[in-house]
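Risk mitigation, structural track. In case the binding assays with zinc ion fail to produce interpretable data, a predicted complex structure has been prepared as a fallback.
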Amino acid sequence: MTEFSEWFHNILEEAEIIDQRYPVKGMHVWMPHGFRIRKNTLNILKRILDRDHEEVLFPLLVPEDELAKEAIHVKGFEDEVYWVTHGGLSKLQRKLALRPTSETVMYPMFALWVRSHTDLPMRFYQIVNTFRYETKHTRPLIRVREITTFKEAHTIHATADEAEEQVERAIEIYREFFDSLGIPYLITKRPPWDKFPGSDYTMAFDTLMPDGKTLQIGTVHNLGQTFARTFEIKFENPEGEHEYVHQTCYGLSDRVIASVIAVHGDESGLCLPPEVAAHQVVIVPVIFKKAADEVMEACRDLRDSLGDAGFRVHLDDRDLRAGRKYYEWEMRGVPLRVEIGPRDLENNSAVISRRDTGEKITADLDGIQDTLRDLMNDILENLRNRAWERMESEIREAGTIEEARNIIEEKRGIISFMWCGDEECGMDVEEKVRVDILGIQEGGSGKCMNCGRDAPYRAYLARTY
Ligand SMILES: Nc1ncnc2c1ncn2[C@@H]1O[C@H](COS(=O)(=O)NC(=O)[C@@H](N)CS)[C@@H](O)[C@H]1O
Ligand SMILES: [Mg+2]
Ligand SMILES: [Zn+2]
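Fallback model:
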């Protein structure tokens, strides 16, 4: 873990998550193992969203004039948009953009869908690929040009209060989702100069990566009525008048997978929450001359009974040294390994090894399903607690610019300080400490670290991806 980005690139290759050799910069191939992890992660997310969102699928290509409609929005994306200019050999009358995000794709259609207040609220999401011509240093899963796993939710409301409440609901959805992955997060309101282009304000989830830099792993935007006015999205209210709707949108991406890998990983490789691991349990037969057949028989029976009980289980019956198997499954982050040998047969037991703590437990084969389920819950709990403790230990209070500078130089991590909220002063702090203001949390009191004025906000600074 000395050089995190080297560790990260290596594990993506060794654990066959993605293949980075694809000949377009910032675009990678999901390999079978990585794809399973991605699928399991998305299943958790969809289970949460499907409670009160409808899943949809909109086109990839955006007409130039639609993309350009909302001036601030297009300004924010104009240098990141990929364009399609030809259909076959013929030049297109009007060029088409590859969606960098789908406001300008969806909202012309929302204008057709929304009629009456009885249609509202509407809550949609789609999980698609989006394209951003990132000019900063691209990194697999972290800063890509094809965002392969872009979950974007878009909601429509009759009032500002409802939109406000939806922002809170989206924040709870993200908390539940990240908690199910054991990923710690800091929730702040982005400073005005860093909010989503065209939004009223942005709430962001940041997590701390092993190298002391923060990664924005999710964002929730209150769009107010800006896009409604631009795209004429109106509804007839109970009094028969026409009003513009109020909107929110909230997004996640491949970074969710990046943070699961980075936050829980260790020197042995991946360490995956059981909910997302490709295999939750791997069975390794301990083969000696004696009783070899009985051992294999017992391992197959266990594989079948666990499979029938809904575990993602794999029996590794390859003719390889056990040690080689242990290494491989630990590197791939399989939460639980079960070994059965001749001695275990006699005792009708098995030896279970936990990936997160390395602890070995001897368990009766009768009732081993409950033992494994309990262990899987313990593992998620342990991973989550370990990750939260680590992040919280890296959040340090600074009373002066000097202190802030020293902390960032020596330890990186996250700095919290009291801020007056004035943009000038904020930019000045970023300048002096040479890191970004992540955002603020309301309800502080004290004097601004930088200018001494009254400070109603607790603000956070960190070096970011
Ligand atoms: N180049 C990128 N590679 C990987 N993830 C990215 C990239 N750019 C943004 N993201 C992730 O995508 C999330 C949503 O992007 S966003 O611009 O903040 N918000 C939107 O696009 C809104 N339409 C909400 S869906 C970000 O919070 C960030 O976690
Ligand atoms: Mg960007
Ligand atoms: Zn100040």
